[in-house]
């Protein structure tokens, strides 16, 4: 059909047969061919989400393309299978052995009334800086973040870099009451500092039941996590550092091995019908339903009891399922048995709602399996959109192999070019973190083994980034003036493949540096401005990216991802804010690529053109620039419209996320009028202070120069801007649970400004969840006025320009 449209409108190709040709997106290796609607292609969907006026295609002979693809695939050498020596050798019995039992079964844990116990033998290899005169061990059983029973402690024992106990700790929970996903947290404390922040020496989490469901009986000699306190959310993997404290302990072995046995599913009489409740209780339930709008609110014991008691009245409220599951007491088998019934009978959650159930609070394997089953309905685009959270949720799994692991692995292999590419680099960005290194590394190794021809692309990209890291480490020792020469010399000697895909974007194929256009940026950490020759045919425009070493780019990546989700929500509501969320790709520890925003200039550069002082107070700053680069009245009007939509989108996004450290150096304007923010080093209301003075008091960056582009505060365009902001805010308010979930799932990253759930409070406050839609609009109008009138913003801009001009 597309081919016929070209012939009809362009009057060319009448003699060509569409079946013999395919289209290639210019500048990439993206092919459009086959009996598919054009919207099914990723590149077309991405184009439609942008505001680019034209999409350029090249017409290629289909047979030539097939030949090229076949030659590439046929040249691929699969990894060799293990040799006979590398395989596990089967056990050969030299004599006929008669079995003592026809079948050895496990003893059901439901019948074991013994209390779970641990024999603590001792701890060894305690680092000198953490050593003490006396130590004590604390052990407790957890399910998610909930402690099951009271913790138990050993007696104090004298020691130095090692300590012995040989003491039996009998915990307060019977084996029959322990859920399948429970873990034991064992922590070593300095006895003299117990109860203080410095008191924790090391800790480790051990699953009560192993992967196959047997109680983890036997002697264990494990490496603990130094300097960490009891953390039920910490991985169940051992520490692999050489200086890790070692603990020797034993979980007693019983006459028969104890196996987890799920209780029989029985529906109690009357449990499926509503119970007669009083008017007061009905009011309480309605109030609890409203409480869902504050996703950070913790339920009291009374609330949990009320929710659980009337759980069957809430089946039609999908948003209440997480609260009901949080209300279950996992020490009561009958309540634990209810989980399966609730999951079967509850109205099915949407995939976005199911993300909540991947939080560490929901440890039950049935709940997590249920969530993954719902995620199956996600499209590849949606999985890529939420990839950060899905990879982080792997940390919350009890075992390395889990339904979520299988889901990501399979979908990544099904679509390796985009989804698999993003999955690989997301895992690599955190594979250096000690407590998750083994899990992520094993995932990556197995993923590479199954990814076919894409394995070489991923490995090439990884080797390329490591070469850049090594070069940066050498150049950091030099001054900026002395670094450019060695930098370009090193690039000219880089051993690049003939063609390879840039890690930043798997669609882009490059074959060489344009060395004279590459440079070392004038910054302490020497970021690289890299310019590549585009290997795609008939393309003259080079490809530019930044590569940084020494900065943790994960916070920038998270901020831009949440903004992309906001944009996705707005589009679903029929609104397009023309936002340009540029790409950021962390590739390892404090390293990664940043997309260069094309045809853009910073507010700082525009202000300095007018003069360091005069530029800050120049209200026609943006208007003058847009008139200068857009010479026709039509283009100027289009630029103003782009500015209105994009500045409204960024206003709401940056205000809700509490983006701080805004100055002219991280505000940009593109020649077609698109307004955007860059560099998100501070968020969630962590505004910078100096000597106790808060330098920023504007809720978001919107200066009189921005107003001037839209006319004036009483003009129609500015009124429309206010209306757009209000509408955008109310869409986010309706999706507050999703936004909170995105950040909750990222608590385990170690990002300094996102350490605990309360850090997200700023965002929920800025969503005005306790107000109506009209009241929220009025509140945002007030914030807009504060931003326009902020004198601190002008002073901050002035001080910044003076500092960078020195």
Can you walk through the features of this model?
This protein is an alpha+beta fold and 806 residues long. Among the domains are: 16-74, no CATH class; 107-259, C2 domain (Immunoglobulin-like, Sandwich); 293-343, no CATH class; 597-805, Phosphatidylinositol 3-kinase Catalytic Subunit, Chain A, Domain 5 (Orthogonal Bundle). 38% of the residues lie in helices and 17% in strands. It is built from 27 helices and 27 strands. Strands 16, 17, 18, 19, 20, 21 and 22 form a seven-stranded antiparallel beta sheet that branches. Strands 6, 7, 8, 10, 11 and 13 form a six-stranded antiparallel beta sheet that branches. The protein has a four-stranded antiparallel beta sheet with strand order 9-5-14-12, with no helix packed on it. Mean pLDDT is 84; it is low at 99-103 and 268-274.
């Amino acid at each position: 059909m597309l081919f016929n449209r070209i012939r009809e409108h362009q009057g060319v190709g009448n003699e060509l047969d569409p079946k013999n040709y395919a289209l290639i997106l210019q500048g990439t290796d993206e092919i459009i061919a086959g009996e598919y609607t054009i919207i099914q292609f990723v590149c077309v969907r991405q184009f439609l989400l942008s505001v680019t006026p034209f999409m350029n295609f090249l017409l290629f002979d289909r047979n030539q393309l097939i030949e090229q693809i076949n030659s590439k695939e046929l040249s691929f050498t699969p990894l060799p299978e293990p040799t006979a020596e590398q395989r596990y050798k089967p056990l050969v019995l030299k004599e006929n052995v008669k079995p003592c039992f026809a079948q050895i079964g496990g003893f059901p844990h439901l019948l074991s009334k013994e209390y779970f116990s641990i024999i603590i033998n001792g701890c060894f290899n305690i680092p000198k800086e953490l050593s003490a005169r006396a130590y004590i061990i604390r052990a407790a059983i957890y399910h998610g973040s909930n402690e099951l029973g009271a913790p138990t402690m050993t007696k104090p024992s004298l020691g130095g870099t090692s300590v012995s106990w040989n003491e039996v700790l009998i915990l307060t929970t019977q084996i029959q009451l322990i859920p399948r996903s429970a873990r034991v947290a064992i922590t070593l404390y300095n006895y003299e500092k117990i109860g203080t922040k410095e008191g924790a020496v090391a800790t480790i989490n051990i699953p009560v039941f192993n992967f196959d469901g047997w109680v983890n009986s036997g002697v264990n000699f494990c490496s603990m996590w130094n300097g960490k306190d009891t953390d039920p959310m910490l991985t169940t993997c051992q520490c692999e550092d050489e200086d890790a404290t070692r603990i020797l302990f034993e979980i007693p072995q019983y006459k028969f091995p104890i196996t987890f046995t799920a209780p029989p599913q029985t529906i109690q009489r009357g449990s499926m019908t509503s119970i007669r409740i009083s008017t007061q209780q009905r009011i309480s339930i309605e109030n609890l339903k409203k409480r869902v709008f504050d996703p950070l609110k913790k339920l009291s014991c009374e609330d949990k009891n009320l929710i659980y008691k009337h759980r069957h009245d809430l089946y039609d409220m999908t948003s209440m399922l997480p609260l009901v599951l949080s209300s279950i007491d996992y020490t009561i088998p009958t309540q634990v048995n209810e989980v399966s019934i609730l999951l079967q009978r509850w109205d099915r959650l949407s995939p976005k709602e199911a993300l909540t159930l991947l939080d560490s609070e929901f440890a039950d394997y049935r709940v997590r399996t249920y969530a993954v089953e719902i995620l199956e309905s996600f499209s590849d685009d949606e999985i890529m959109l939420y990839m950060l959270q899905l990879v982080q949720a792997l940390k919350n799994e009890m075992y390395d192999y889990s339904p979520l692991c299988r889901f990501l692995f399979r979908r990544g292999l099904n679509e390796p070019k985009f989804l698999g590419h993003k999955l690989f680099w997301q895992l690599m960005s955190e594979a250096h973190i000690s407590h998750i290194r083994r899990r992520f590394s094993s995932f990556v190794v197995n993923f590479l083994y199954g990814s076919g021809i894409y394995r070489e692309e991923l490995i090439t990209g990884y080797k390329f980034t490591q070469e850049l890291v090594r070069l940066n480490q050498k150049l950091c020792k030099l001054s900026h003036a002395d670094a450019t020469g060695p930098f370009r010399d090193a690039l000219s000697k880089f051993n690049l493949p003939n063609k390879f895909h840039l890690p930043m974007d798997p669609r882009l194929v490059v074959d060489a540096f344009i060395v004279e256009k590459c440079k070392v940026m004038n910054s302490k950490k020497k970021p690289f401005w890299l310019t590549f020759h585009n290997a795609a045919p008939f393309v003259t425009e080079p490809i530019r990216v930044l590569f940084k070493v020494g900065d943790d780019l994960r916070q920038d990546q998270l901020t831009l991802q949440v903004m992309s989700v906001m944009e996705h929500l707005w589009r679903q509501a029929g609104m397009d804010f023309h936002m340009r969320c540029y790409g950021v790709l962390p590739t390892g520890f404090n390293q990664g690529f940043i997309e260069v925003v094309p045809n853009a200039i910073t507010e700082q550069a525009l202000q300095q053109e007018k003069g360091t002082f005069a530029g800050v107070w120049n209200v026609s700053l943006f208007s003058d620039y847009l008139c200068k680069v857009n010479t026709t009245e039509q283009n100027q009007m289009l630029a103003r419209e782009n500015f209105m939509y994009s500045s409204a989108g960024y206003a709401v996004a940056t205000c809700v996320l509490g983006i701080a450290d805004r100055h002219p150096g991280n505000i940009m304007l593109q020649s077609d009028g698109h307004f955007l923010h860059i560099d998100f080093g501070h968020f969630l209301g962590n505004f910078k202070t100096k000597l106790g003075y808060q330098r920023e008091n504007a809720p978001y960056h919107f200066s009189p120069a921005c107003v001037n582009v839209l006319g004036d505060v009483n003009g129609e365009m500015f009124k429309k801007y206010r209306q757009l902001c209000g509408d955008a805010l109310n869409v986010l308010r309706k999706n507050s649970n999703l936004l909170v979930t995105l950040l909750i799932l990222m608590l385990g990253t170690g990002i300094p400004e996102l350490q605990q759930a309360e850090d997200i409070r700023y965002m929920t406050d800025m969503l005005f969840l306790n107000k109506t839609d009209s009241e929220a609009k009025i509140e945002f109008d007030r914030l807009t006025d504060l931003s326009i009138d902020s004198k601190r913003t002008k002073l901050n801009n002035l001080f910044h320009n003076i500092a960078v001009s020195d």
